[in-house]
Amino acid sequence: MAEPTPRRDPQRLRPAPLLFEPMQAAADPEHFFDLESIDDPRALLSRATELTQAFRAAADRAVEFQAMAAAQLADPRRFDRLTPADIAEQAEWTEDYAKKMVEFGRDLLRGAEGARGHVDPV
Known about the structure:
The protein has 122 residues and is mainly α.
């Protein structure tokens, strides 16, 4: 399994919104965010690019939340804290990667504490 590199992007672009698909459309393997219905290649490229950027932004944000959760689970002040090996097993990471994610999460949480203890998920 490839391991994403933790990073903090100081400038967040607002990606195109990911619109949820109706259950019937999601069940159709040929249907993907209505891209198959776009005939104009310029419009198709534009919308597909918007979706790509939105998915990347969502993945980056999800990694940040993974890191914060890993840091909280490894917090030595918790009586039920987990070891990096436990976190790695739960998240399907290597132990070394779990250690890096815990550190990344601690950095993120320290930054959040500097912002009045509030983490803005947007």
